[in-house]
Write a structure and sequence with these properties.
homodimer, 207 residues, mainly beta, Jelly Rolls, three-stranded antiparallel sheet, 40% strand
Amino acid sequence: MLKEPVRSVVDVSTGGMSGNTGRYEKRLSELAGLYQDADAHRAMTERLNDPVVYAVEDFRPGNQAGDLIYGVTRMGPGRIGQEFFLTRGHIHAKADRPEIYYGQQGNGLMQLESPQGETRIVEIGPQTICYVPPYWIHRSINIGDDDLVMVFAYPSDSGQDYGIIAASNGMRHRVMADDAGGWKLVENEDYRPRSGETAAAIMKQHA
Amino acid sequence: MLKEPVRSVVDVSTGGMSGNTGRYEKRLSELAGLYQDADAHRAMTERLNDPVVYAVEDFRPGNQAGDLIYGVTRMGPGRIGQEFFLTRGHIHAKADRPEIYYGQQGNGLMQLESPQGETRIVEIGPQTICYVPPYWIHRSINIGDDDLVMVFAYPSDSGQDYGIIAASNGMRHRVMADDAGGWKLVENEDYRPRSGETAAAIMKQHA
């Protein structure tokens, strides 16, 4: 069946996008368990009345293989202890699907983790594209003082899988603020490495 | 096999992109046959010593199904008679593959044509996304006085098919400058409509 072309105008200042088919928000309470300092997370959630951490507006043409979903994400600035506002992180349910992010405003990081537990960090500022290859778990982090706004696109049959992170008690590393106004990687002490069999099974997974 | 993440910085003023795996250019002589005024095309090609009409820098992770190619395209401003600088136009070799364009600078149009010969025009300025759905022939046109710069992404197994346009002697309509500094659509008198059987065959084509 033939679909109609779509025109979407991105409002970088609000993270909005015309022509979208949907919108969703994540609030701070939904990020429970991600932060090392659970008390600080709980206190901030109460003090700020469970604020929105990030919002997404996207266009979904359907979920046929070969088609593309695109949208805009806006994440506010914020700190929980020495950690930053971030997304839970996911691998695609079809693990061999990639994703592209394109920074529009603010300063962020993409934290990536391979099935074998290797970490990569890609710094994202305005006009920076981050290519997330197939099979990499990924999470975005707002390390700046302003909203982090990114345009993204991914195959429409990708899906999202959050269980792989839950099974390993988060990602292998935490991004923490350092004393110089920047960031550093520290080991996540709760991290449970995936077995070689688990990693191999993920790498074998196809559409 | 696991691929590494990629960071690409887009230079909007030049249409360049770091981290690219390739670059190509199209010169005016290569657009022979597209314009109504063949004499004007030939004269301008000679007078300007066959200028570059557009250049593309892209990142190609490979051509596996489910992966994504992305890049930047820059098209100069120019007129051939009452027509503008433009791309030849293509449908994807796997016709059910879509494409996303994201305007960064300048003023352009995406001219789209369905297998059945319907025309759609999407105006693209800065921060405008154009979603080209599966099965639509598409061409970009620079209707402004400056470079038209767009970021794009499409499935890595899409391929490009230029034969469908050659077979119909171009697209059904031509975009022409009007007397008010804008543009208008006129019928392409050389256009040869595709048969219902041809259109149906395109719509049935899958990966």
